[in-house]
Sequence to fold (416 residues):
Amino acid sequence: MTPADSVFLRRNKPDVLCICGGIGFPAGLASTQRITLICRALVEQNLAVHLFHCGPSPTDRNTLVSGSHHGISYQYLGARFTRPRSTCARILAYATAYLHLTARLLLTRAAGCTPHVYLYMHGGLPNLYVAALCNLLHFPVVQEVCEWPPSWPSSGKGTVFIYNRLLFRHCAAVLVISETIEHNIKRLSVFAKRLFPIVRIPVLVDPSEVSTDTSVSPPHPVLVWCGDASGYIRDVLFFIDVLAELRKQRHNCFLEIIGETSKQVTEQIHGRLAELNMPVTQVRVLGYLTRREMLNHCHDGTAVMLPLWDDERSRSRFPNKLGEYLLQGVPVVTCLIGEVGRYLKDSETAIIYRTGDVVDCARAVLVLVTDQETRDAVGRTGKLLAERLFAYQVYGYQLARLFRKGQIGLSLESGT
Fold:
């Protein structure tokens, strides 16, 4: 830390330190938007928030090593700002980032600052290290949990052990995104021994972030899917099968894929299209877009596709992008699985299909393709729901109460 940094900390002591991994800030992954809106809610409640980004940026759209975004001051830590392609170089970049973070936290404490820490790092050893260091420095940690890896078949014994025994051992409170995750934590022995607050905050949106794109509607129906195609290839292949089913019924629809992809994924997409005797032009792989570009594509689409599966992962998560889709006034085609089923109703706020059922998903899409009145009504009602229940300002007081000194242990009930 430079002398200027030390002076900054003494004069502008942060109330909250947000610490996250290499998700990108202010531009980045879906998690970035959640972090941004929670921090904005705190800033608007007159709390000073500083963000430490541990590791390089996953996108070249971030150009500043430090700066301010919506009142949130931020800094990238580590030897590299852009993400290296080499695995060894990437490991080194993250290692230097955590060394850098250690120095920053020690000097923050030496400067007389004792902020609360909002920790968003998806579990794992780095999460444990940062939480232990903050505990040693007497910085209260509010741990964010947006998924529940112990229930995934692919998770190893180490991950299960971390979540069941270690992750919540010293935290001051936990932020969760779904009721399922809340119940999972409450069943742990560590919670029975020490009743820490668990606060449930759903997906969040910024009501002002509505697309105003006025481009002409495409001549054919367009289905939009956003995500990391490499990690969710099952979703992409499922929707290609849905396109094929729609073609059988003489409806020619197109699929737009927005997000990170790879050469291998593109080959898998083209392979599935060839198997189904479909032209490659029916699937448009757009890659990573800016938020504005992504929202414009969603706004102009016939429907936004949000697949969920009949598994523990889907039951525990609450996709961050659901609120953003609804806010654009475009109908969402999805399943009533987990937290989504607590908020959406079929033909009112979304169009619902049976999970994993290609034919039923095609039926749901056809409702929107053939009935403009229903499409407009569902889009309008979904938008109102997002504005009423997911606006980040609604949760500002609740979050500020959680992070303000002396109030973190006032309540054990979610939503209070």
